[in-house]
Amino acid sequence: MENLSYYEILEVSQSADKSTIKKAYRKLAKQYHPDKNPGDKEAEHKFKLCNEAYQCLSDDQQRSTYDRYGKEGLQGMGGGSRHSAGGFDDLGSMFEDMFNGFGGGQSRRRQNPADMEKYPLDMNVDMHISFHEAIFGCEKEVEFTYKTSCKDCKGTGAKNGKLSTCKQCKGQGQVYMKQGFMTFSQTCPVCQGTGSAASDACKSCHGNGYDEVRESVTVKIPKGIDTGNRLRVSGKGNIGKRGSRGDLYVTFEVKPDKHFIRNDNDVYIEIPVFFTQAVSGASVTIPSLTGELELKLDVGTRDKQHFTFRGEGIDDVHGHGKGDLIAQVNITYPKKLNSEQEALLTQLQESFGIEESKPHESVLDSAIDKMKGWFK
């Protein structure tokens, strides 16, 4: 469960509204609540993951950031790990944020430059997989480049790790703007609020504060993965100044199939059927995800009619059963007839009698008589 995205944890789609997200969260929180699962560490862990997911998706700003950049984009916003199991922010930080910008910038705590990371520890890579790989699951090797703190400058980006007072904010970590009688502050864009900046850039990392390393890892992709789903590979993200390492997130893009069309866990396939087969209710052998199936047409099957095969669809990625296979009939007709075929069709039509073979006459005769009366 922890390897899934916040949407997958709450079992909602990425387009779900707040009401749907709240309803899904309440259901899962009730299911995994520690009071209902005493001593169950797995349930407790799932309960915390549900809380973390809900705290992000219920906040418009955090949700927007998460949709664009993933969990790694929430670092520094108060997302993810800042929330306790109860779902409330730290009160000290809340009041600090509240009063910042109203002349209270001086009281804001400034982080030690040695502790600040120049990049998020969590990272994301995109992976394209085939329809077959997504349906049946597989193992794939992921190649990626992660960042690790430069040892020569200790991740500061400064020569020999020596920082000096930031010239932009003069060591305050904040820059101020006046609008009328109000004074607003914001984090210094040069030193990122530390109050310190590099006078000379580190030659080893060219002032970046990090080196880049190429690595690969094999991930096990579960059955039923779909476009937009994400898997977390724990401890394979960027490495920080103190040696802590974030997580790697793999976001999937599934290539479409030539014959099967996916709709959530259901899969559709178009079956071309000759008109005589549709009329007579013939049996047709069709392909499925696991082999061949026998499709028994109704007598007089209509064009675009659907036939459903229960449980022959795609495995749910959460383990909640399987979808269905829906076969859509596309009736085809001959483009031209020879004299023998025309005679046979005429003979077949006449065998049904006038009322059945020419339904338009009984329906339209009265309308034609009425229309003729308009011109008398």
Plain-language structure description:
The protein is α+β, with helices and mostly antiparallel strands and 376 residues long. Among the domains are: 1-89, Orthogonal Bundle (Helix Hairpins); 260-332, HSP40/DNAj peptide-binding domain (Sandwich), CATH 2.60.260.20; 346-373, no CATH class. It has ten helices and 15 strands. It has helices at residues 6-9, 18-32, 41-57, 60-69, 91-99, 131-136, 275-280, 339-350, 354-357, 359-373, and strands at 123-129, 138-149, 163-165, 174-179, 182-187, 196-198, 210-221, 230-233, 248-254, 260-263, 266-274, 283-287, 292-296, 306-309, 325-332. Strands 10-11-15-14 form a four-stranded mixed beta sheet. The protein has a three-stranded mixed beta sheet with strand order 1-9-8. Strands 2-7 form a two-stranded antiparallel ribbon. A hairpin with a 4-residue loop joins strand 12 and strand 13 (292-296). The chain is elongated, with a radius of gyration of 32 Å. Residues 78-110 have low confidence and may be disordered.
**Annotated CATH topology of the domain at 1-89:** Helix Hairpins
Order of helices and strands: HHHHHEHEEEEEEEEEEHEEEEHHH
Shape summary:
elongated
Low-confidence stretches: 78-110
Q: Strand tally, please?
A: 15
Largest sheet: 4 strands, mixed
Helix percentage: 25-40%
What is the residue-mean pLDDT, rounded to a whole number? 82
Number of helices: 10
Strand residues, percent: 25-35%
Give the CATH level 1 class of the domain at 1-89. Mainly Alpha
Q: Strand order, biggest sheet?
A: 10-11-15-14
- Termini separation: 80 Å
Class derived from helix and strand content = alpha+beta
